[in-house]
Write a structure and sequence with these properties.
The complex is a heterodimer of chains A (about 290) and B (about 450). With about 290 residues, chain A is mainly α. Chain A has helices at about 1-30, 40-55, 60-85, 90-115, 135-160, 160-170, 175-180, 185-210, 215-230, 235-255, 260-275. Chain B has helices spanning about 1-15, 25-35, 45-70, 75-95, 100-120, 125-145, 150-155, 170-175, 185-210, 210-220, 220-225, 230-260, 270-280, 290-310, 310-335, 345-365, 365-370, 380-395, 400-415, 420-435; strands at about 160, 260. The chains are: A mainly alpha (about 290), B mainly alpha (about 450).
Chain lengths: ~290, ~450
């Protein structure tokens, strides 16, 4: 039972990373109906920026805050410059542009920071009181940070005027524009927020998976799976989906099959679930009108 | 003007009935003859690349059918390519089936697998379907490495495939044409060309007729299509099957060409490349598959050689290109007198474009200026990404989409009296754009 508990809890911890990434995907999907394929690479690049600052001697939490700010601004500009001209383009063209962004970020990271695998400092000391036999302090800290991010996102959308405006813009852009909400700017802000959330995911994941330009390739897949399992238009669903995917993957790897194909098993389970609930576990079912 | 109108109307009617323009069969025959002459004039390496283009074209055509004509996104066609390739490899390795018979067998197996996968996929739409198919692409290399299948798949090592020899009846023909004896690689090219022609003719017949119209109707409005009496479930699953069959045949021929199959050559990125080829060529087109296939075959090499150029030369060309595009764009905007094109934007845009072109030309031609160019060239991957994004700005509905829109504009400008073409032609363009994707 001990081993089972250990697997379950470390699954929850990695699930936290997937949950943050899924949350970032949902943020962008809700406002623009695009799945951002470059989200993982953007998070990876943000993590490299944080790593560079720590190398320069900036204290961890200061670097954390600066990275969030840089990610926000960079993604904001990127939305305005790269994605906005494609407002009326067919969805597949947008998919290809986002794949192009993925390639660019991946190549730039390797070019600027190199392909050697780097260790990334953990902000949570390994002998902290909240670390225990079942979970390391890093894992506890990761779950805690995920929950804090989720709470902040919830408060932002529920209790601030900007959050209200963003919800309105996502639900009905035309009417929102008519009552004076600048929908275009809000979409860019959505991108910025998503990039910041992704940066948190990257910085939390880096101490465990180590830092290199390809660290996010599989992470992003899990993030997608989590977001779609939970329902792509439901932030709570995305976070729950993240934890489910994390646990599922860990348990499958430990008890069902060898670790090489645990990814396959987890994906098959997710796809089968989707066949029975085509809009995710907690997604809104779309009814088509004729 | 009247005669022009009549001809356009007649052509439009002919096209709507799935008819053929008079010059089209002739053009196709000429292209096939030229393509058949290729292996005797190019080097071995080029021949390999061109054979690969044919193979990719079949795979991309399969994806076009599914995504462009039927509206089902697939990020997992690399899996069907892998199934086709492994079918051929295993049959050649373990049984006495001749190589030419393995290709249709691979196609048939992929048809069944694709149909069966298409059944649960019926319930998924949009990104949910993209995830399910992508899961297929991710699972494929892992399953191929799986221990229990080692006996057939050879595990991580993969399976070697022999390059087929040309059959005996070919050599007398070659002697008759006064050409040297045919090599294995040339024969394989001919085989791929034959399969490509065969599959494209089938696709053309399938998509131009009643079946194709049903597929498009399902893409554009499933409920209305069902009301009109189309069995959407059968059509969607069958489209998945046929699409997988095309990609499977491509995979089988690809295995013969590469002479080797291993799990890592079928990573998820292969599926992404097929999608890129499909969209760049024009997802709602048949002949666009060739453009897309050439793109995914040659662009990585081009990006590679671009990143090896001297910085001033590369940046010089980029600036000249940007300047030229800017000048054309300025001219076009000022001709159309677009609303957003104020008194300020035009001159500024024009001046910037001219400046960029001049600086770029300076980098290329004047040794003194070259010193001012940036000193480093970005890696090929970044160049590839930038080209991809730039292409999607220029032609969001792919190369064939661009040609179609340009053709419609041109026809309109020629047919209509001057002065009114602006609005109507842009409406045609918008309509074309709507067709693609979905």
């Amino acid at each position: 039972l001990d081993a089972f508990l250990h697997q379950l809890l470390s699954g929850l911890a990695t699930g936290g990373i997937y949950a943050s990434l899924a949350l970032a995907l949902v943020m962008i999907y809700q406002s623009t109906h695009h799945l951002n394929f470059a989200q993982g690479e953007m998070a990876m690049f943000s993590t490299f920026i944080a790593w560079q600052q720590i190398q320069w001697g900036v204290p961890y939490w200061a670097a954390f805050a600066i990275t969030l700010a840089i990610s926000f601004v960079a993604a904001f500009i990127m939305e305005r410059v790269v994605v906005r001209p494609l407002l009326n383009a067919p969805p597949l063209a947008v998919v290809i542009v986002l794949l192009g962004l993925l390639l660019i970020f991946n190549g730039l990271a390797g070019w600027i920071f190199g392909y050697t695998i780097k260790a990334f400092a953990s902000p949570f000391p390994s002998d902290a009181w909240y670390g225990g036999p079942y979970m390391s302090s890093q894992e506890v800290g990761m779950i805690f940070v995920t929950l804090v991010v989720l709470a902040l996102v919830f408060v932002f959308f529920r209790f601030t005027p900007l959050g209200l405006a963003m919800r309105a813009a996502a639900q009905n852009p035309v009417s929102s524009r008519l009552v004076g909400i600048r929908v275009g700017w809000l979409l860019a802000i959505g991108w910025g927020l998503a990039a910041s959330i992704g940066a948190v995911a990257g910085m939390m994941a880096a101490p465990i998976v180590y830092l290199d330009p390809n660290m996010m390739a599989s992470m992003l897949l899990y993030g997608f799976a989590a977001a779609l399992l939970g329902g792509i238009d439901n932030p709570w669903g995305a976070v729950l989906g993240g934890f489910i995917v994390g646990v599922l993957e860990n348990l499958a790897g430990a008890y069902v099959v060898s670790t090489e194909i645990k990814l396959t098993v987890a994906l098959v389970i997710i796809v089968v679930t989707l066949v029975f609930r085509p809009f995710g576990l907690w997604g809104r079912v779309l009814v088509s009108r004729v | 003007v009247a005669t022009l109108n009549d001809t356009t109307a007649a052509t439009a009617v002919a096209r709507a009935r799935g008819g053929v323009r008079p010059w089209q069969p002739l053009a196709v025959v000429v292209v096939i003859v030229l393509a058949a002459a290729v292996p005797f004039v190019v080097s071995d390496y080029r021949l390999f690349q061109l054979t690969q283009v044919l193979v990719y074209a079949m795979a991309v055509l399969g994806l076009n059918m599914l995504t462009g004509f039927n509206g089902q996104i697939s990020l997992g066609h690399g899996a069907f390519y892998a199934i086709g390739a492994y079918t051929t490899a295993i049959l050649l390795d373990q049984t006495g089936v001749p190589y030419w018979a393995t290709v249709p067998i691979a196609g048939a197996i992929c048809l069944c697998v694709g149909y069966l996968f298409g059944l649960p996929a019926l319930r998924l739409e949009g990104f949910y379907l993209a995830l399910a198919t992508f899961a297929l692409a991710v699972a494929t290399p892992q399953l191929l490495k799986y221990k229990a299948l080692d006996h057939w798949t050879g595990g991580v090592q993969g399976v070697l495939v022999a390059l087929p020899d040309p059959p005996d009846w070919v050599q007398p023909i070659m002697a008759l044409l006064k050409l040297p004896a045919m090599q294995g690689s040339q024969w394989l090219y001919m085989l791929c060309l034959a399969w490509t022609v065969f599959l494209f003719v089938i696709a053309w017949n399938l998509l131009r007729g009643r079946t194709g119209r049903s597929m498009i109707a399902i893409r554009d409005h499933p409920v209305a299509a069902a009301t009109m009496g189309i069995d959407t479930a059968i059509y969607k699953a069958s489209t998945f099957g046929v699409s997988a069959m095309y990609t499977g045949v491509a995979g089988a021929l690809g295995a013969l060409l590469a002479q080797f199959v291993s799990p890592d050559s079928f990573d998820p990125f292969l599926s992404v490349r097929f999608l890129v080829g499909s969209v760049v060529g024009g997802v709602f087109s048949i002949s666009g598959a060739f453009i897309g296939a050439a793109f995914i075959q040659f662009l990585p090499n081009l990006a590679d050689s671009a990143s090896k150029l001297a910085p001033e030369i590369m940046f010089g060309w980029v600036l000249v290109a940007l300047g030229a595009i800017g000048i054309v764009w300025t001219g076009w905007l000022s001709m159309r007198r677009a609303a957003a094109f104020g008194r300020l934007v035009g001159p500024v845009l024009g001046a910037l474009s001219i400046a960029a072109a001049v600086v770029g030309a300076g980098f290329l031609l004047l040794p003194g200026w070259a010193g001012w160019a940036p000193k480093v060239v970005p890696p090929p991957q970044v160049i590839y990404g930038v080209v991809l994004i730039a292409l999607m700005y220029v032609m969001p509905s792919g190369a064939m989409g661009l040609i179609r829109i340009a053709g419609a504009r041109l026809k309109h400008v020629m047919a209509a009296p001057p002065g009114i073409h602006g609005n109507v032609s842009s409406a045609t363009g918008a309509k074309e754009r709507e067709h693609v994707g979905s």
